[in-house]
Amino acid sequence: MKQGEGFRFQCNYQNNEDRALRFGTSATDEMCVLFALIWNAGSERDLPSQDCNITWVDSSGVGHAAEVGFPRAPQAQADLCVSTAPGDACRACQCGACAAPLIKCATDADCKPILDCVQGGSTDCTAVVDAHSSAVGLLFQARSCVEASGCAAACPE
């Protein structure tokens, strides 16, 4: 491929189940994954970092890593997200940057139990993750956005 070129990757499924089919780690979940290896074939022969995880897809269907930046949340979404912890500067920063994936996870029947377990300070959420594995992708998207949000100053550990 030449500089500026790209490709699209898409999977289509016929879901014969009476439940939503999403990405997950269980054999009953969707697992459409594209693995690829790319590098600059020029004079540099060192393989660059391959740590690129697609965490959101734009309106053209192009996937982006969290490091590229998530689209800013519409003000109504940010306000809804912040309403769960008014006056919390950390939450306000994270909601301003990541309201869409945070709300999507918090309102999803499978993502919310994992989110509650992780945010509750549990050291072992394995059973919850196993029971709700189809939501791991949603949780990863929300976490990746928060980590890339630049809110570290507002969010003490």
Describe the structure.
The protein has one domain. It is built from five helices and two strands; from the N terminus they run ββααααα. The termini are far apart. Strand 1 and strand 2 form a beta hairpin. The chain has helices at residues 75-82, 89-106, 111-119, 126-131, 136-148, and strands at residues 54-57, 63-65. It is mostly helical.
- Class computed from helices, strands and strand pairing: mainly alpha
Averaged pLDDT: 76
- Separation of the first and last Cα atoms: 43 Å
Can you summarize the main beta sheet? 2 strands, antiparallel
Roughly what percent helix?
25-40%
Number of strands: 2
Number of helix segments?
A: 5
- How much of the sequence lies in strands comes to under 5%
Oligomer category? single chain
Which ranges are low-confidence, i.e. pLDDT below 50, for 5 or more consecutive residues?
A: none
Run of helices and strands = EEHHHHH
Overall body shape? globular
**Going across the major beta sheet, what is the strand order?**
1-2
Radius of gyration: 18 Å
The tally of domains stands at: 1
